[in-house]
Amino acid sequence: MELVVNKKNIKFLIIKIFLSLLLFMLLCCLCLYIILNIYINNKGIKIKYEDIKNEITIELTEKQIEIMSYIYTNNKGPKFKKLPLIMDFVSSKNKMAYIMATFYFAKNDERNKKITTMDRRIIIFGTMRNIEKNIDYKDCYNYVISNAYFGNGIIGLADASKCYFDKDYAYLSNEEFIKLILATINPIKYNIEIGNKRLIEEKVNEISKRTNE
């Protein structure tokens, strides 16, 4: 009888130790997550609208932003979504904030050429998190497309529109706008002048259909 009781006590003790270790590991993970979150956020560049307004050369319409959002994120909803650190890292929902952070860091921070790839990624990711909180999504889209590369040495939607379609960007049709945005994704594959015309038209038709549903 005493032996049975001892076995039960030992079994209970093992379970208790296991649960205590599990709880300890969870607390350690939580603390690590909080510290990592604070570290990354502090590493990011604090951007305000005043810092970027001189680098924005266009103002997209709501429809153009919706199209651009779909092409870049496969989601027609362009607004940023507040996500936990890990989800924000892997989700494409806030991809435009990441692209803006990359552009801004490359253009305005001297550390860009002096630090390691890992440090650069941490700074960009922290900057992205800051953009999600402090920059309006419309300003983000306008900034990105004002500084995007369209092939043939062309930077920015305003110049790309004049070069490829000989018109102001405000007068682009949705199909023309889609072609230009595709060029920023892959300037060679979707090159408006020398790219595969049939491939480009098929992609434009697909995107037009999805964004008009």
Structure notes:
The protein is mainly alpha-helical. The chain has two domains: 7-43; 49-212, Biosynthetic peptidoglycan transglycosylase-like (Penicillin binding protein transpeptidase fold), CATH 1.10.3810. The protein is built from ten helices and no strands. The chain has helices at 2-43, 49-52, 62-73, 85-90, 95-108, 117-134, 137-147, 157-165, 174-185, 197-211. It starts with a helix and ends with a helix. Residues 1-5 have low confidence and may be disordered.
Identify the notable features of this structure and list them briefly.
mainly alpha, Penicillin binding protein transpeptidase fold, 2 domains, 10 helices, 67% helix, transmembrane, Glycosyl transferase family 51 domain-containing protein, transmembrane helix, PBP_transglycosylase
* Percent of residues in helices: 55-70%
> What is the makeup of the main sheet?
none
Can you identify the CATH superfamily of the largest domain?
Biosynthetic peptidoglycan transglycosylase-like
* Structural domain count: 2
CATH topology of the largest domain: Penicillin binding protein transpeptidase fold
Low-pLDDT segments, ≥5 res:
1-5
Number of strands: 0
Write down the CATH class of the largest domain.
Mainly Alpha
Rg from C-alpha positions? 24 Å
In DSSP terms, counting alpha (H) and pi (I) runs of 4 or more, how many helices?
10
Question: Structural class per helix/strand content?
Answer: mainly alpha
- What is the name of the CATH architecture of the largest domain? Orthogonal Bundle
* Strand-residue proportion: under 5%
Shape: elongated
First and last CA, distance: 74 Å
String of helices and strands: HHHHHHHHHH
Protein name: Glycosyl transferase family 51 domain-containing protein
Domain Glycosyl transferase family: 120-209
Organism: Treponema denticola H1-T
Transmembrane segments: 12-36
